[in-house]
Amino acid sequence: MEGLLSLCLIVKNEEKVLARALDGVRAYADEIIIADTGSTDGTKKIASEYTDKIYDFEWKDDFAAARNFAFSKATCEYIMWMDADDIVTPENGVLLGKLRKRLETEKPDVVMCRYDVAFDAEGRATYSYIRERILRRENCPPWVGCVHECIAPQGKIIFSHFTMRHGEVPGKVRGRRNLDIYQKNIAAGVRLDPRHTFYYGRELYSNRLYAEAAAVLTGAVEGEGWAVNKIESGKVLADCYIALGKYDEAMKTLLGTFRFGEPRAAVLCKLGSLFKRKKMWKEAIYWYSAALTAKDFSAYGDFDQPECRGIIPLVELTACYWQDGEEKKAVECHKTAAELQPDHPSVVFNRKFFESRGLL
Q: Which domain holds residue 199?
């Protein structure tokens, strides 16, 4: 088949979400490749309504191997990947259509796109990062990593406003799968590189194994590796220390991330929260105020938490200024927060609080 864009997915028991994923993107893909790793539900039947290119792949506890298999079946000039629980909204479908034209005119090797993976109650993205979303098939580097797999971008790289949205799977509970895969590989003698050391530590943290996570993440912070991964490791390491009640260690860890790059908003908010815990209001105000002016580093590979540059520091500043006796500044911060997210639970609470005192 000759075409512009192949879409590749690896799936297993995705009958609840697969149609949602494919409905949003089918109009923009010239072919759809499905690699099924052992579905026992109606996944294949649903997939057959969108494509006849459905292949079985024996699951080997290796996501990179599965993605490489799916990519090997693509025939178009470019390959786009997504997961079955991802969503292309109508607005982003329009952007994907425009991106197709850029593929034809600019001929990139890699297209980097935003990936929104967590959301607030109103559907606003609270956790995002940039991923290699579309790649030129010819001479495409392989996926690497048994978990948290990736392709190292190379060649001509462009950035697009097209955003993939990670959706929920009804009834799905996060388990130990990723952690178990890592530990299986470690037991087999596999040595994790700096990137996967960070991800392994994060999986330990997610499974509430805080002491074990802290040991791994300390190695990630102090060892070799990319500065961005060191900063991210420091953020999660600080969370481990907080969970263990080691607040001074958390503070030292967060301040230590400044060795690797400009202060990140999430780091500044965590520092603010630690000083707030100590009722050191002026110090907390300093760090939360700094968070408001921090940059978005997602284009550099950071995991972006936009709330840490907006509603979180504003709500916390409202509380800290009030506790510090700065009534006027507290009300000003509340008003700014209300303009940004009027229905945020803390904003609603503060509105009632200030109204009861005749300050609004």
A: 174-261
